[in-house]
């Protein structure tokens, strides 16, 4: 190891070792890091945190949102059960999956459960990162089933308390280390009198320890075993299972209930009505109310009685319907539930989103195409808006619809498409995309990147509303001609901070790919007496007809990025990525071409670096091979342009199969991407070089 102009250099002699990477942590075919589960009690109890586990750690705890999970408002739980689990979502650094399942209606969900039939289901980190970015709590699943499940339960529950405490301590440690929020406990086998007698003690200890070590932690019990130890689903909370409800944070009922079950539960639940999650099987298996595209019938009854709802396997729209119509079907499914799903408010800055779904048919970086081909990386999903389709109630004229679209992107793999029609008598429409509850800072930087599709002279603007502290406005998503004195627009910056210089010079001009930036300025609130002690309340995009226009004006607008940033944070200095290291080097020969040159070398290695994670959205990892050719002016050779390898959401990245050049050098660059959404100069990137030679 040596230093070379602030690049740490590592030297390697190529050797084709057969030393495999640990199978639990790496895919045997690609050597890419994968999420994992435990199949037995022995595996659970033997686990201790290891450096390999760090790939699967979530970027940060759940973002703040309002109202919090602790409020008594009825909640919505989504239980994700799809074809056994750990599909394309198991690849921590993403994959090249075509048409994968993708969920994006996070604004309507409070809790996300990752479900599989493995004993200890640890949520793949991509789901945890996407959910936490939206303020959604994530639970893993502890499940026992059949005879083997019965033996597992007897092993830790039928003895003294040290046995069940050891299991609880491991479950808490796993949630704490991987940064998810708790567990769904699902015992699908009968229990002996000793085991069922210890179950409430196990639940109480697990819940207390989780609350102590995981802020906002949650333990839920599934309606299965009753207090006698029999496996006997009740489809309700009653005297036979109340002891388990009383020992943890909530109760998830089985699915074959009727309204009389809900009526009976009112007395059992008492003041904890919101802690009862009434199960709804979206596949509509068994004797259930609703399901499939009639799931709203279940929600109507559940909300009528004030209970929370647990939607099991809403991936039905992906598994059972045409894949080519997936986005249309998913939007239809959630639109039918909309009136029964209270939404949430974002309550922290910076707030930046490019609407990327964490997938696409190509990769784009600020309007410039970087790679072509399918990709899927759930951790890369950015904050998604309120999706809706509305018509004006008065006469049905005028409409607006928001939906995601993979056809074009400003940054990532997708954008938000808003289409609509402004009726003749209306000057403009305003689409509410996000509900906010953020204390107003003295200066707010606002920016919108958009593109109008086809000929249109509609004017597009980003607007923000304010309200009194203590108000959490969750109302209609769409308003026509909503005039309000508390709506504000930014004014241009005179002298932008260095971090924003790249953007502000282009304000109002066309950017790469036909995109346009509006805003790029400050909303100065500190001077406005009436805004002191207020909160930012709603984020809207407005569409106005041209002056003098009287006919219906239709529009199709693609949103590429929205930024709402406390201007003070733009003055903070940028830290540099430090101490990039190269380890776990593996060499192999690529499959030779028929009649081609000798087989290329393929390099696999792990990069580690040091950087504070709290201010970053992610890291972009690049490589650059060799020293390149001569410069255009005939001067000395210069390095070639870096090639993007992928995204990292922790301080490490596994390079599975890079193809270095033949001159014995490959350089790796780690680019931090701040939450504020601006580009970091290369001088602040981390760098390491690997010099290699044949033996």
Automatic annotation (TrEMBL):
Domain of life: Eukaryota
Domain (Cytosolic endo-beta-N-acetylglucosaminidase C-terminal) ranges: 571-693
Keyword Ribonucleoprotein: no
InterPro entries assigned: ENGase, ENGase_C, TIM_ENGase
Gene Ontology cellular-component terms listed: cytosol
Keyword list, A-Z: Cytoplasm, Glycosidase, Hydrolase
Primary enzyme class: hydrolase
Reactions it catalyzes: an N(4)-(oligosaccharide-(1->3)-[oligosaccharide-(1->6)]-beta-D-Man-(1->4)-beta-D-GlcNAc-(1->4)-alpha-D-GlcNAc)-L-asparaginyl-[protein] + H2O = an oligosaccharide-(1->3)-[oligosaccharide-(1->6)]-beta-D-Man-(1->4)-D-GlcNAc + N(4)-(N-acetyl-beta-D-glucosaminyl)-L-asparaginyl-[protein]
Record localization: Cytoplasm, Cytosol
GO molecular function terms noted in the UniProt entry: mannosyl-glycoprotein endo-beta-N-acetylglucosaminidase activity
Its EC number(s): 3.2.1.96
PANTHER family: CYTOSOLIC ENDO-BETA-N-ACETYLGLUCOSAMINIDASE, ENDO BETA N-ACETYLGLUCOSAMINIDASE
Family indicated by similarity: Belongs to the glycosyl hydrolase 85 family.
Listed name of the protein: Cytosolic endo-beta-N-acetylglucosaminidase
Source organism: Ailuropoda melanoleuca
